[in-house]
From TrEMBL:
PANTHER family: EAMA DOMAIN-CONTAINING PROTEIN, OS03G0707200 PROTEIN-RELATED. It is a multi-pass membrane protein. This is Transporter. Belongs to the EamA transporter family. Gene3D superfamilies: 1.10.3730.20. GO terms for cellular component: plasma membrane. Keywords: Cell membrane, Membrane, Transmembrane, Transmembrane helix. Residues 9-138, 147-279 form the EamA domain.
């Protein structure tokens, strides 16, 4: 790959990360007028229809194995979005953004449990730093964890599983079909959960409409489309480090739009989380530079 291709890919992924980061506040406002499951269901249904209309010819390639892979990946993606969206009702956009970012650190940890190989010193140091940062960010004055923080942490676990599963299945199947299928799975499960536990509002308020428009196309359909299209032009390490910017964008949006205030302790926690994420990826940066012909996974 050329340097220009890699730069363009990195900038495109940064735009995707920005779209994800700024939606925390938007979703939080939208949930005042609609249940979280219905919101996720409608959001992903719009995204599924959008991509389906563009790539409808791809469905001729669909087989059983690709369908199974899409179902599994979609289930983890649904869990991530469900925990995140419900958790946003009980915590701040800043907390949700930073805790969700822990998925980047959790990936090598979960991978080591599956492969039964301990992570290296850099990964262990990164996980430790991020965990301490999470405690500083999430623990209140009475040393209790906010219920929303717990839900969003399960979101981070789900996203970590999703990243690992995409890494496993994407090389074997059409990545565009996998993206469309997983979006469809999230839409179906979410609408089912909404029908069971929520009431569809008689009309959508302005924040709901704005939330659906902003999240369905730019932050879901286009985001997954861009990621699947350009990630082959950059390394997984570059992608992971770029995705670290999501909680930074979320915190900045919470500060600028929602006027959320972070205490000095929370800022230190945020810094430790970001440090942990970078340290956890440092080993891959060094390895990639020392072996330029080989691309290492996350």
């Amino acid at each position: 790959m050329s340097k220009m291709q890699q730069l363009q890919a990195d900038l495109a992924l940064l735009a995707v990360t920005f779209a994800w980061g700024v939606t925390f506040v938007v979703v939080q406002d939208a949930l005042s007028g609609i249940g979280p499951y219905y919101f996720i269901g409608i959001r992903f249904a719009i995204a599924f229809a959008f991509l389906g209309l563009i790539y409808w010819k791809r469905f001729a390639r669909l087989d059983v194995e690709t369908s199974k892979a899409g179902l599994i990946i979609g289930a983890f993606l649904f869990a991530g979005y469900a925990f995140q969206t419900v958790g946003l009702q009980y915590t701040t956009a800043s907390n949700a953004g930073f805790i969700t970012g822990l998925a980047v650190v959790l990936v090598p940890l979960i991978s080591s449990l599956v492969t039964k190989k301990l992570p290296g010193p850099a990964a262990l140091l990164g996980v430790t730093s991020a965990t301490v940062g999470l405690a500083l960010l999430s623990l209140g004055d009475n040393l209790t964890v906010n219920f929303g923080d717990v839900l969003v942490f399960f979101c981070a676990l789900s996203y970590a599983g999703h990243i690992l599963l995409v890494g496993r299945y994407a090389p074997r199947h059409d990545p565009v079909l996998l993206a469309i299928l997983q979006i469809g799975v999230v839409a179906v499960i979410s609408m089912g959960c909404g029908a069971l536990w929520e009431t569809m509002p008689d009309h959508f308020t302005r924040p709901v409409w704005m939330g659906l428009l902003i999240t369905a196309i730019p932050a879901t359909a286009l985001a997954f489309l861009i990621q699947n299209s350009v990630q082959r032009f950059t390394s997984p390490t570059h992608t992971a480090i770029i995705f670290i910017m999501e909680p930074v964008f979320a915190a900045a949006t919470g500060w600028l739009v929602a006027e959320e205030i972070l205490t000095a302790r929370q800022w230190v926690g945020c810094l430790l989380i970001l440090t942990g994420m970078l340290v956890a990826e440092l080993k891959d940066v060094i390895r990639t530079e020392s072996q330029p012909g080989e691309v290492k996974g996350i």
